[in-house]
Write a structure and sequence with these properties.
Helices cover about 25% and strands about 25% of the residues. By secondary structure, the protein is of the alpha/beta class. The longest helix has 13 residues.
């Protein structure tokens, strides 16, 4: 199977045709092999516009939603970016094609290890992954020009907005565990400009400043 042809068709039919015009984002989608980030049995479905299951009862988001979030984040080639929710590592790899430095946090150690294996295979050595409660952010390398959260929170965590650079953008799904909207929060001095965008449905952001684990408290910080 010619995966590059499949990627090109995905970009033209599912992204460009639906209004994604940023050439850097489209080039990243053409370049990053999505089929490497799903189970081998699901590889033939990797370039459709739908989410796919991965380990730990998580998902890899549909390509259009990923592209939309990248577009809203407005990532420049010299930017330092924080990602909350590495998952399979697919969006992480796209960020690695767009930004100078990427820091990604995943609360499931097995997912983090799997993502790192593929990211290293793609020679994305400027992408850094750790297992932790992502709702705390990664203050060691703050501030960030962009922060992308790949899970839904009940409200915007102040721990993340505190790590935004001046003019930095936080893209995060906000709402209930069943229904949310993407929000873009931009830092302008001491003011945070919060703009609601597309309706979306994400799995919950679990952690100290998100949703608790099912049936109990938030997971311990590791």
């Amino acid at each position: 199977m010619d995966w590059s042809i499949r990627r090109g068709k995905m970009v033209e039919d599912l992204l460009a045709a639906r209004g994604i015009r940023d050439e850097r984002i489209l080039a990243a989608f053409r370049d990053v092999p999505r089929h490497l980030f799903v189970e081998e049995a699901l590889a033939p479905k990797a370039y459709g516009d739908h989410p796919l299951p991965i380990a730990e009862r998580q998902t890899i988001s549909q390509p259009w939603i990923v592209a939309r979030m990248l577009l809203l984040a407005g990532i420049g080639p010299s930017d330092r970016v924080l990602e909350i929710g590495t998952g399979s590592g697919y969006q992480t790899a796209l960020l690695g094609r767009l930004a100078a430095q990427v820091y990604s946090i995943e609360r499931h150690a097995a997912l983090a290890r799997g993502a790192v294996r593929v990211l290293r295979r793609l020679n994305l050595d400027h992408v850094h992954v750790k297992t932790f409660d992502g709702t705390y952010g990664w203050s060691e390398f703050a501030p960030y020009q962009a922060i992308i959260v790949s899970a839904a929170a009940p409200s915007v965590p102040g721990t993340l907005t505190d790590q935004l650079a001046e003019g930095g953008r936080l893209v995060i799904p906000i709402g209930s565990e069943k229904e949310q909207r993407l929000h873009v929060v931009t830092r302008r001095g001491d003011t945070l400009d919060d703009r609601a965008e597309d309706p979306v449905t994400f799995l919950p952001l679990v952690g100290k400043f998100g949703w608790p684990e099912a049936g109990g408290a938030a997971p311990p910080v590791r």
